[in-house]
Amino acid sequence: MEHVKQKGVPQNQYTMCWLDYKRCEDEEYLKKVIPFISNIFILDNNYYFRNAALELKEAIKNIFGVEPNIQTTSYLDFHHGTLIGKLGNEVIEKFLEKEEKEQIGNEGFLIKVVATKTQNIILLVAKTESGIIYGTFELINRLRVKSNLSSLYIIENPKAPLRVINHWDNMDGSIERGYAGSSIFFSNNRVKRSLKRVRDYARLLASIGINGVVINNVNVRGKAIWLITPKYLPELSEIAETFRLYGIKLYISINFASPIYIGGLSTADPLDPDVFKWWQETVKTIYSYIPDFGGFLVKADSEFNPGPYVYGRSHADGANMLARTLLPYGGVVIWRAFVYNCLQDWRDTKTDRAKAAYENFKPLDGEFLDNVVLQIKYGPMDFQVREPVSPLFGGMEKTNQMIELQITQEYTGQQIHLCYLGTLWKEILEFDTYCKGKGSYIKRIVDGSLFGWKYCGFAGVSNIGSSINWTGHDLAQANLWTFGKLAWNPDRSVEDIAKEWILLTFGDDKKVVENILWMLLNSHRIYEKYTTPLGLGWMVNPGHHYGPNPEGYEYSKWGTYHRADTKAIGVDRTSKGTGYTLQYHPHWQKIFDDIEKCPENLLLFFHRVPYTYRLKSGKTLIQFMYDSHFEGAEEVDVLIQKWEELRGKIDEDIFNRVSERLKMQKEHAIEWRDVINTYFYRKTGIPDEKGRLIYP
Amino acid sequence: MEHVKQKGVPQNQYTMCWLDYKRCEDEEYLKKVIPFISNIFILDNNYYFRNAALELKEAIKNIFGVEPNIQTTSYLDFHHGTLIGKLGNEVIEKFLEKEEKEQIGNEGFLIKVVATKTQNIILLVAKTESGIIYGTFELINRLRVKSNLSSLYIIENPKAPLRVINHWDNMDGSIERGYAGSSIFFSNNRVKRSLKRVRDYARLLASIGINGVVINNVNVRGKAIWLITPKYLPELSEIAETFRLYGIKLYISINFASPIYIGGLSTADPLDPDVFKWWQETVKTIYSYIPDFGGFLVKADSEFNPGPYVYGRSHADGANMLARTLLPYGGVVIWRAFVYNCLQDWRDTKTDRAKAAYENFKPLDGEFLDNVVLQIKYGPMDFQVREPVSPLFGGMEKTNQMIELQITQEYTGQQIHLCYLGTLWKEILEFDTYCKGKGSYIKRIVDGSLFGWKYCGFAGVSNIGSSINWTGHDLAQANLWTFGKLAWNPDRSVEDIAKEWILLTFGDDKKVVENILWMLLNSHRIYEKYTTPLGLGWMVNPGHHYGPNPEGYEYSKWGTYHRADTKAIGVDRTSKGTGYTLQYHPHWQKIFDDIEKCPENLLLFFHRVPYTYRLKSGKTLIQFMYDSHFEGAEEVDVLIQKWEELRGKIDEDIFNRVSERLKMQKEHAIEWRDVINTYFYRKTGIPDEKGRLIYP
């Protein structure tokens, strides 16, 4: 396995992030561990088991400097080593209690240590090959952080059934909203020939429990429309095979009008029998190439993509038609709820884009087939630095739902700014919708437990590309890591998740852990402060969405307005305004409706507020704006200082790359501070109480 | 000659604009004319004469339905016909007075009619082949408007020596700031094979007296850098040959760093002997393919293009080095003065982009070689709907100057809005700089007469492309026409020029002439009213520059700010402000400095003005803004009505195309009106005195 790296020296032009194994210098631990790891026994001699064993072997070799033997066995003829096997196997089952066996779910695993005078055995048990590979990486990571083997005992099952990465990769190699190089899958309108990097990507994803990858952009245009045809399926099947080894299914984004573009039909009407037949044939062909194909992701009737509305059909009509073709093979349709009027007139104050998803989909609750999942962006707008949680979650009880999070930092600093998203995501997941009474958390909705759904889960828009460190900003790797870990178990604390990432990526130096943890956990808060606090959003440059432009979207067609004048700013979305709050459970409606009770970090999302309005702190809104921007930009210095303290403790390349980005972040934070402050000063004429420099 | 069209029926997918010959229905005129045109005699049997004669023959055939004979002759053996010959030829000179001969300049021509009882002869005489082709088109046009032959007598000489079209065509076929299809020269990084359209373009240009074409974008990147090499010269020489037939020289835009990109040198330092040698060789090669090559157009040290500043050299160093290589062949260097800091910090209120060209070039006056011409945009910024005239004109007495006008409507409606630019250009040309006392008009500077320059003139950024009507908006053809006619003779009135265009393009129906003339002459005034009046400028969407965005450039790096706050708007560019007015002659400095004397249509260019300031009309600034926008958008209805009145009197295709654009113009004028009014209302809180609807 050529992918394993030595001591942080980059091989093959890219790092392996948290799988960049470093040699364990702790001789004592090595001594303790050796008996358990010098042999690897696998009970099934198949491709998947051998692959898992090789992963383990290479890791052990790199971490401990010993090269374990891999042996296939069918009975217990040894006393020392790691035993990998499936539930049901006699050799394994001898070591397990009845309750233990029952606790291991489809994708779960058990790691259990048998340490007696005569036996030093690590058991890795799972029900499926997926569980085996997840367990393998978990075991490797436990060994890397020097877990005490005598007390090592893990039973893990993922909470959510679908844990999917969405790639917005285009076939020309570009990535929509990508900030880390070009696509690792496509270039020049072709599927890339080398699968080496795809395989390493699969390893990274398996190590965080991801089980699905949508390989292409949801905006499906040009050549990408043809991905579902034999023109590209032979190559896609090779990618699928690579992913399969790591428990990951391949999905494809489709163009709803494919029957017209590819099939030569005159319509893509979902109720037209020829259309259905065309899709049926297409799906059959896909499964002939990719027997475990995951399904389709569909952006329909959204931002100039075709959809069922074109034919006067509902989204249920559209999704169900596709779902019927996939059902015999176990495939799903993931249908995006990101449907709104993207040709709004800014003069129209009645239409409120925030209401669109709910208005389009709520009436269809109960109409979708069982293998349709609605993929809903976390907030009602579009991945702003802060939005309220979409009221569609829990608003539809009879419809499978996935939450869509954006790992790539479109509006959150584009991997130039450090902006760890775990803290934001955790807040979202812990939001109690009250839809089924107190405790109806988002995390319980999307993991399926609240309504007993089979298909549901997490979708994350990828932040990786062909750059040396996968994510542009080295610390942005933490966002991918955290997405996977939260999708696996949204109950875990982000502190814990982030800390584990630091330990695996940078080692256990106390200062390193402490400083990077502070940086991660505070970075979103800081970014929010110097950009658009209070739920304001959208003050970015149109198109590329980087950098401040306070009125960049003010007169556009995108439905994203703050309507600031000399007196006030914000849109009244209460029940007396656009009525958006009425889409929430009464518990929240009352809170959001009331300017005094509304969470302050969402104040300007829900209310139109005079600049002289006093916040709970006693500050006026305008003074809060000034303070927030001055303080936020100032706090970037703390990030820089915390990083600077780690000089010499971190791989030099990584240290320098991050330093450079932090320097840019500081510059750009100052730009944000000054533009937004000047904007508000010019708009209001109200000076800063503290007399700091606001450019006139 | 396959290019001649019948009665407005499009052949070959495009119209021929003002050269779209229609049959003359006036039998009486035909009778009078026939003796003069049924024979064409040429005194030089060369390619150029034959081509001119064929142009005339085809025109006569199409206009009068008779097919004249073309005969080469060397003595006068006829009594009826058109005689085409050069000065110096005995046969011709018999008919000419001494003074007449002296009056015909290098590119000029004489048309004279000899009508006696025995002779019916039209004489077309010139000193050069260029004069012959210009005269041919003039004669054709005179016949088309049924000029009285008995009184026909024309001596014409162009005022300015250089009358050049700049194409911002890229080699991929796109056109920077092009709004009429793709390039007629390039596609797919190749020179197009078919020269048919190039030839028709040459005909159009010759008919308006253009004598130079810069074939590629001033931003020279990628493959375009190689246009000066044998990789492309064989094909360019064919284009040059086509142009040559019509008196037009080919020019190429170059990348100043070509010695590095192409030559493999490590520097492009203009004082490096190897660099000079490389350019010398390159120029030699170019002339071996194109013996009458015009020269180079250079955008250096401007908007990310390389230039002499990179090496600590002056623009004179850079231009002169190139000029020396071109001098032996009679070529010129056209050097753009569009040099400014495009990475300005918006917080920096000292730097004023308006001052940049003068600051960069004024100190170099007298340092440029004789075959260097400075190409200066008409205003100090960048082709806004209204700017003051650049103080560089007349500011440099010892430097050849060309004025750069933008025929393509980048900031003036992108050929969706009707915006005839002749009226604006005429105002510019008639501006009296006072640089050499009263009467030092721009037109006298750029035609060379004021300072006795050899090289000087007009550069116009092309508005044509591969669209059916060349210019997208059919009426935008008038801008190309007018550019050529003003470059030929800037003393002519635009009313006269526009009217001639209408007669040749649409015929002499009284209503047609009257209405289109009104539309043209009022269109810039109307566009200015509903967009950015008072010299405001720059309130456009960044990047593509279409449509309103009041703060689109407010925090950018481009140096284009209005700094509007709740009280006032505009930049103080007076001697007490940025000092820009100090670049003008004291006569203008005093006027521009004084808010009461400053021409009102430039008020916000020169002054920072409170919204409550009262204009000469007694209106406040803010009320003027509201009125201007309401009225301007309203007046688009008059344009529509004037056009609608011509239904049935205009070729249906053209009528419909223009109607459609006028409809879009109305919609977009309303957008401008509402966005700008709302912007100012939100900024000031001051309501419209007349209570019209301003969206809050």
UniProtKB/TrEMBL annotation, chains A, B:
Q: What is its EC number?
A: 3.2.1.131
Q: State the reactions this protein catalyses.
A: Hydrolysis of (1->2)-alpha-D-(4-O-methyl)glucuronosyl links in the main chain of hardwood xylans
Q: Which GO terms describe its molecular function?
A: alpha-glucuronidase activity; xylan alpha-1,2-glucuronosidase activity
Tell me where in this chain the Glycosyl hydrolase family 67 catalytic domain is found.
Answer: 145-470
Q: Does the keyword Hydrolase apply?
A: yes
Gene Ontology biological process terms, A to Z: glucuronoxylan catabolic process
UniProt domain Alpha glucuronidase N-terminal: residue ranges: 17-139
What Gene Ontology cellular-component terms does the record carry? extracellular region
InterPro entries according to UniProt: A-glucoronidase_C_sf, GH, Glyco_hydro_67_aGlcAse, Glyco_hydro_67_aGlcAse_N, Glyco_hydro_67_C, Glyco_hydro_67_cat, Hex-like_dom2
Domain of life assignment = Bacteria
List the keywords (alphabetical). Answer: Carbohydrate metabolism, Glycosidase, Hydrolase, Polysaccharide degradation, Xylan degradation
Pfam families (UniProt xref): Glyco_hydro_67C, Glyco_hydro_67M, Glyco_hydro_67N
Instruction: Please state every residue range assigned to the domain named Glycosyl hydrolase family 67 C-terminal.
Output: 471-692
Active-site positions, per UniProt?
Answer: 303 (proton donor), 382 (proton acceptor), 410 (proton acceptor)
The record's note on quaternary structure and interaction partners says: Homodimer.
The record's similarity note reads: Belongs to the glycosyl hydrolase 67 family.
Listed name of the protein:
Xylan alpha-1,2-glucuronidase
According to its UniProt entry, this protein's organism is Caldicellulosiruptor saccharolyticus (strain ATCC 43494 / DSM 8903 / Tp8T 6331)
